[in-house]
Amino acid sequence: MAASSGEHHQPVKEQEEGGVQEHEDEAGWVKAHTDCAHLNKVTSGLENLARFDAPCSKCEDPKENWLCLTCHEVDCGRFVNGHMLAHSAEADHPLAIGFRDLSVWCFACEHYLDAQVIPQLRPVFDALHLMKFGVPAPPRAEPKSGERQVIVVQTPA
């Protein structure tokens, strides 16, 4: 449901394992987590990463594709044909990175992860950023003492 003009929606805060997750349903943003119990499923081998424009391995759709961070299979997202969601459940591969915005999602925990600050995720984030944009990912500025850092991840409406 779209908000009418003039309406203002406050972020919703939910207490979850791993911290507070904030999300704004109408605006489509969430606060990404900085830890996950499934990071041990991430594998290395960045030299043979699929290109960011690779089609889904099952339906060949070129839109909204995700890279499995365990086996590096490319499948489409839940708003196309849901092949990455099915792959995650069938193969027990919970982590994937979206080619569109380089966001990392844990299917098991159902939350986004901050790939720029989690050491196990930073190499694949950096490799895909360079491949997609032709420049290295900028370093992330650490927040000053007492400052709150907000990571914005765009989600489909």
Automatic annotation (TrEMBL):
Limits of the UBP-type domain: 34-135
Pfam (any one): zf-UBP
Transmembrane segments annotated in the record for this chain: none
Alphabetical keyword list: Metal-binding, Zinc, Zinc-finger
Gene3D superfamilies, A to Z: Zinc/RING finger domain, C3HC4 (zinc finger)
Stretch list, region Disordered: 1-25
Protein name as annotated: UBP-type domain-containing protein
